[in-house]
Design the sequence.
């Protein structure tokens, strides 16, 4: 089954404790992206990747890191989480980059993060 | 000015009616437009994409694009209670490698 998976689905942590949220897709998609969703602010892009070893900042990259060592995986790293990073996080992937006509994004199930 | 703006709603329509959802965008060189549906507690899923001025129909859904007015809309005919969800408008600007999402409009279809 074609899908985007994220782990964990729910996470409660404390300020400053490094964490990683994994994202994996099995559709051989080139483009992957991380979003956070907050009430009243909608979906905001954190980072995106157009291919292996190619990543770039989105709208709200501060406090986050990503890597793309393999095509299927795109982990999101919070080196020192803070309470303002409490949010619902979505990973998404698409066959091509936006603007190519192949930019339909498939979203993972989401990771709900609470930073105390 | 936000890249993409939507009325947050909630928008309530009776079952069987036409629901009209609207979205405006700020950048004239935007080239690709998408409507995603998000049920409460779930992830967004694509309903429609539209690239050219005019209407695009898919079943009960019609997307309308007017680039001169920087306006894209989604019409849902014969609305069903199962259409109750938040609808997100997304826009790709020419030359940009990402999508900009609106904050979404919450639609409730009343049986």
Sequence:
């Amino acid at each position: 089954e074609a899908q985007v998976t994220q782990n964990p689905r729910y996470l409660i942590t404390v300020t400053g404790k490094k964490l990683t949220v994994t994202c994996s897709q099995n559709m051989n998609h080139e483009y992957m992206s991380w979003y956070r969703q907050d009430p009243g602010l909608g979906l905001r892009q954190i980072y995106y990747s157009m291919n292996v070893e190619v990543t770039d900042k989105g709208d709200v990259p501060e406090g986050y890191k990503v890597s793309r060592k393999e095509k299927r995986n795109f982990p999101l790293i919070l080196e020192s989480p803070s309470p303002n990073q409490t949010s619902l996080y979505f990973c998404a992937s698409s066959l091509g980059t936006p603007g190519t006509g192949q930019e339909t994004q498939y979203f993972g199930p989401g990771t709900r993060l609470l930073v105390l | 000015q936000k890249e993409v703006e939507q009325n947050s709603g909630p928008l309530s329509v009776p079952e069987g009616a036409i629901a009209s959802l609207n979205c405006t965008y700020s950048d004239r060189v935007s080239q690709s437009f998408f409507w995603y549906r998000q049920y409460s507690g779930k992830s967004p899923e694509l309903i429609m994409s539209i690239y050219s001025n005019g209407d695009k129909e898919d079943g009960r859904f019609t997307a309308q694009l007017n680039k001169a007015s920087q306006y894209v809309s989604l019409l849902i005919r014969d609305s069903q209670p199962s259409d109750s969800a938040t609808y997100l408008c997304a826009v790709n600007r020419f030359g940009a490698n990402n999508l900009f999402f609106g904050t979404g409009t919450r639609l409730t279809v009343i049986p």
